[in-house]
Every structure is written in C-alpha cells, then in structure tokens.
Design a protein that fits this description.
about 40 residues, mainly alpha, about 0% strand, globular
Length: about 40
C-alpha cells in the first residue's frame, strides 16, 4: 500500500493525472488527493 501511494504522488508531481491542475502550484498535491478521495 505504501509503495502504491508513493508511486501515485510521484505521478501527480510529474503531471500524469488530470487531478489538481487548476490550483496554485504549491497546493497541487493536496488538491489532487482531495479530488481523488471524492471519486474513490
């Protein structure tokens, strides 16, 4: 589970997901996790 979470965060940072793209750069990870929690 930890490895999957780490890979998910790395992919977010690299822009491989469309999550958290419409927020300030410093808030992208937090916004992406919030968006992901809504759909998961």
């Amino acid at each position: 589970m930890i490895i999957e979470g780490h890979a998910f965060i790395q992919n977010l940072q690299r822009g491989h997901h469309g999550l958290g793209v419409d927020v300030l750069p410093g808030m992208a990870i937090a916004a992406a996790v919030d968006e992901f929690a809504l759909v998961a």
